[in-house]
Amino acid sequence: MVNYWTSKVLPKIKKVFDNGGKKAAAAEACKSFDESKEDISKEFEEKKADLQPKVVELYEASAIEIKTLVKKPTEPGLKKKSTVVVKFIEELEKIEFPGSKPVCEAATKYGASLISGPIIFIFEKVTTLLPAEDPPAPAELEPAAAHVECVPKETTPEAATEESPAPAEEPPAAPEPAKPTEPADPEPPAKA
Fold this sequence. Notes:
InterPro entries: DREPP. This protein is mainly alpha-helical. The protein has a domain of about 130 residues. The N and C termini lie far apart (about 60 Å).
């Protein structure tokens, strides 16, 4: 009986709980990617002009989740959104983005969280091809905020009274929490 246990059952249990093999293989894939970073960077610089329109189109068609990860990649973010990350890398592979093929293969095999270094490297390269969208957005928000600040300064006391009813509209939102107490009333009749 002990012989059967050690030869048949124990190896199966070890397989289920053994992630060391997967982690070691992912580490090996990361190491080989790190060794080829220079070649990938050279190829990227050569194809930069051809890749930019394709990457911008792909990026614009992507979900908001992947857009934020591409702009600011983090290991926890890659772990949480690994399926979206793998799909995006597959799309990069289709447009023949340098370095995306080995990263896609490794991400599919081992998971995005185990090869976060190469994925972050690819996302950094993708970011260099994207147009600078962030600076105009705050510039657009600042004039709007300045406009909001200027309006109250220029308003008369009558306009100030017009603005005060708007906060009065917010208190009706307070009775909504009172509604959850109503379901508590049906409970006592159910007990009776």
